[in-house]
Amino acid sequence: MVRLNLYNQDLFCGAQAILWELEDLGVVPLPSVRTIGRILSRNELTHRRTGKYEAKGTPYPKLSSLQPNQTHQADLVGPCYLKGPIRFYGLNVVDTATARCGLHASPSKAGQDLLDGFWSIWTRLGMPENIQVDNAMSFFGSPTHPRGMGPLIRLCLHHGVEPWFIPMSEPWRNGVIEQFNEHYQQKFLDKVVMATADDLRTGTLAFEQRHNSRYRYSKLGGKTPLKALAATNATLRFPTQEDAPRHRLSKPETGRYNLVRLIRSDLKINIFGELFPVPPEMKLEYVVATIDVKDQKLKMFSNKLQIEEFDYSLR
Known about the structure:
This protein is α/β, with parallel strands linked by helices. The chain contains 9 helices and 11 strands. Helix 2 crosses helix 3 (33-42).
């Protein structure tokens, strides 16, 4: 009945989702995830894709996720509203190797709120090598000043993190965080009653801890995110100071940031509103545009081979 109720609401209705729902309903004793899975299988309520999946289409330069904090995916959800009413934005981050999440509720998308959010999450998750985001202005800065390096880019480059911007209008390239956002909406925002900013702060951290310590993923061999992290014996890198840096950060002098773009028939690549030509053979191919801050260059790569280079003075 729990599965049917979730299914009818178009929500996740697998074994893990059912366990959480039973837990929220106060069912005692709780069955294990494996027991629920066996019941679903016995009643033919599992539907899996058959046959080997074969990727189709143009090759995509996907970031590696072999080690903890090798790659984080991040997104801003909102505006969301409490019963208060209080408006906020949910900054959600997921480590793609271990599925650990980091959450922060911000009153706005302004520069300092964004710095506070990422810094708070990094103090718990650790700092990544790469962070992958969409092309929201909150992340890259302003289209009026496309070379100005927004707050997130500056924060990352000052602390040895490499930003990656996915292709425009292709949210599935951030599929891990997009799927987590649904989980966040269904299992947190839609279920936890919060009326004040203190409720929101406490509830957000509680949900983060619950997910990381208790949610089990098949891709992790049935481990929770924290168990998956512990199994790697990895050494994580954390911020060296408690308080977040203050906006507006100084212009970085080293580092690089990247944009992945699909080249259309006009043979132009869009770099935050500026258009640059690309070679004709790149039509309908993905190109990585890398801004090298030290060299003040815009370098374009296909399959890790450089295909073009432009002077790119940062302001």
